[in-house]
């Protein structure tokens, strides 16, 4: 891929105990494999300190990711493609990520969110805890942006193994299940696919 056509890919996520953070790294690896310029950023934490302190895994994750940049609207402006990551919260996007998305109103009002590529990935505690509904809820926002939705679909063998056409997803069984190799492969594939499609669109527009 020529440097001129290399897309800028922003991976913007929220993670409390580390699963979504780990998936973000895999998505970034896939996008980089496709030649993209990748920036990974977390959104700001909104939970009170006492809630974090009451959960050792959450507290440890906050310490371990202290050096991860915090996302801001400029990152979205920079990106040709944005991949959002979130844990599920009652079948929906976590409030931390939603709050960040809600700050993008000024960019939306200027039409600066349109015609970019978007995708997503999630993690949940229970097998049917809203992984698909969370991604579908997230993608409603993409339609309002006028964005171009690029999911992994069933476009590679790994997708038939994981069965996650809407985006990579993990079920952690309240911390008992580590992220599987198949899910990690799906995350890398999704990042690669988003970057590949974004590069084609960028090259066509230049």
UniProtKB/TrEMBL annotation:
Pfam families cross-referenced by the UniProt entry: FMN_red (PF03358)
Name of the protein described by the UniProt record: NAD(P)H dehydrogenase (Quinone)
InterPro entries: Flavodoxin/NO_synth (IPR008254), Flavoprotein-like_sf (IPR029039), Flavoprotein_WrbA-like (IPR010089), FMN_Rdtase-like_dom (IPR005025)
A GO cellular component annotation in the UniProt record: membrane
Family from the record: Belongs to the WrbA family.
NCBIfam families: flav_wrbA, PRK03767.1
Molecular function GO terms recorded: FMN binding; NAD(P)H dehydrogenase (quinone) activity
Flavodoxin-like domain mapped to chain residues: 9-194
Annotated Gene3D superfamilies: 3.40.50.360
Organism: Allokutzneria albata
């Amino acid at each position: 891929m020529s440097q001129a056509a290399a897309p800028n890919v922003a991976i913007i996520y929220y993670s409390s105990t580390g699963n979504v953070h780990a998936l973000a790294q895999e998505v970034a690896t896939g996008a980089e494999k496709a030649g993209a310029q990748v920036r990974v950023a977390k959104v700001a934490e909104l939970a009170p300190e006492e809630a974090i302190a009451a959960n050792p895994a959450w507290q440890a994750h906050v310490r371990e990711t202290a050096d991860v940049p915090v996302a801001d609207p400029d990152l979205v402006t920079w990106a040709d493609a944005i991949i959002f990551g979130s844990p599920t919260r009652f079948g929906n996007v976590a409030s931390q990520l939603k709050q960040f998305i809600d700050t993008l109103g000024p960019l939306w009002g200027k039409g600066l969110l349109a015609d970019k590529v978007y995708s997503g990935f999630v993690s949940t505690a229970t097998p049917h805890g809203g992984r698909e509904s969370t991604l579908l809820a997230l993608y409603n926002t993409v339609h309002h942006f006028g964005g171009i939705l690029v999911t992994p679909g069933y476009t590679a063998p790994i997708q038939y193994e994981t069965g996650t056409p809407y985006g990579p997803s993990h079920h952690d069984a309240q911390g008992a299940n580590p992220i599987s190799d198949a899910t990690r492969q799906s995350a890398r594939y999704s990042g690669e696919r988003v970057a590949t499609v974004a590069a084609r669109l960028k090259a066509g527009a230049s």
